[in-house]
Amino acid sequence: MAGDKVAVHFGGGNIGRGFVGLILHRAGYRLVFADVADVLIDALNAADSYQVREVGQDSRTETVDGFTGINSRTDEAAVIEAIAGADVVTTAVGPTVLKFVAPVIAAGLRKRDPAAAPLVVMACENAINATDVLKNHIRDGADDFDVLNGRAVFANTAVDRIVPGQPHDGLDVTVETYFEWAIERGPFNGDEPQIPDATFVDDLAPYIERKLFTVNTGHAATAYFGFVRGITKLSDALDDPEVRTNVQGVLAETKALLVAKHEFTAQAQQAYIDKIITRFENPYLPDTVDRVGRQPLRKLSRHERLIGPAAELAERGIHPPEFLLRAVEAALRFDVPADPESVQLQKALRTRTPDELVREITGLQPDHPLYDDVLSVFGRRVAAVS
Ligand SMILES: NC(=O)c1ccc[n+]([C@@H]2O[C@H](COP(=O)([O-])OP(=O)(O)OC[C@H]3O[C@@H](n4cnc5c(N)ncnc54)[C@H](O)[C@@H]3O)[C@@H](O)[C@H]2O)c1
Ligand SMILES: O=P(O)(O)OC[C@@H](O)[C@@H](O)[C@H](O)[C@H](O)CO
What we know:
The chain has 386 residues and is of the alpha/beta class. 49% of the residues lie in helices and 15% in strands.
């Protein structure tokens, strides 16, 4: 049951309800979901509870209650008021949306009682150090940042649970049984919030890089290779021998990087990969290649799951990362009319030169050791569509 502690969570979507909301509820927080989707907010305010159905091995269903919803588009003042009195603020809105929630969090901090305990702020997005990104947005928009910073503790996190898009209306969420929430310990100076299902770690970098460059790189590769083969359901993709070979090749390349860079043994990383492959294959998860491949421009950007590890491998002389380059090529074929970034990508491939595309989409410059290989990939795709 919800207690006295309050968590304001931006983004009541898949991971918001099916992971962050659930874990904070379990930890005794009363949840305030802030979202811009009218239908979702109305549904949250009309319901007493929703269910999280965990499917796979050891399936079970949990109930989340004790929440309210605020429409942050139409009632920003109420969100600011809630933040002023909250214990925790979390986000799961997507990395590109953090700049829009930053001023609201700043306004909440400004209204906060200076004597109150600091507000814990954690961005739960698939991106390296997303909380730092959020904090920088707050800093950029606030002349009084030093005051606001004194009223908050910003901690980076790595969140891992596959939560597909939900195929029906309503608040219930179907999720996988697996989850991991790693939070950096340092910013709390020994006074971490009580979240029993989270793991506080001294150094988040290995966790977040391993997660992004194994789970998300492998996931995106499965989606893009699967899309090219005409497969719709994510869990079906690895049944295709060509997709499987390519995904395993990609994960072998990121394994080489992660083992070289961090203190993971090759055996431990292989066990992590094997576990992840079984998570992707979970037939009970209604996940699609369209969701997992969504926003291909973000996923092709410089420090993201494809170009990020490929560039680092090239910098280390492990060159060329053949399977990651194949995944980039497959990503360029991701043509989903409902996905604005896919539409933008397909248009750009028809109207821009390969050199412009590589610089603008991947952020690689000609002096980078990966540049020529990526230019070839883009050049082949541009030739194919023109
Ligand atoms: N779904 C997963 O499996 C999963 C797992 C780990 C991390 N993540 C990360 O969590 C984030 C959210 O992913 P998701 O799958 O839940 O997406 P989603 O689209 O289901 O949810 C995002 C929610 O944010 C809301 N939103 C958009 N702009 C907003 C704004 N300005 N203010 C408040 N709310 C806003 C949307 O209305 C939506 O309800 C992403 O960064 C994603 O990478 C997702
Ligand atoms: O959320 P994205 O678009 O960054 O990536 C899509 C999926 O790979 C992702 O949501 C995973 O399901 C999740 O990261 C698993 O923890």
